[in-house]
Amino acid sequence: MKRSDASDALQRALQLSRELTAVADSGDVCATLRLDAERLVLLQSARAALQPMDEKDRWVLREIAELNDRALGLMEHHRRGKQRALDTVAVGRRAVAAYSTTRMMRR
Length: 107
Hints:
Layout: H1 3-26, H2 29-47, H3 55-99
Helix pairs in contact: 1-2, 1-3
């Protein structure tokens, strides 16, 4: 791969990182995984051609890393929200199980 092609691949990886962050914000795990895999292929293919790396490419990689951190944080936030919802359901099920053994007393 030529250096210019590698720089183009890096720009595409940056664009995918932006899309990935937006998708992660919506909580779409499947789309996030698909975009992440596509981005990984681009980054791996560009790595060898970008040595030594110039300042512009370093800046793009830093932005990709920042967007990746943001996407990870968003996905973790969604995971914790789902975990809280599951915990609430579990508490409700335990309450139903506890009260289902009692019967109303008739007068």
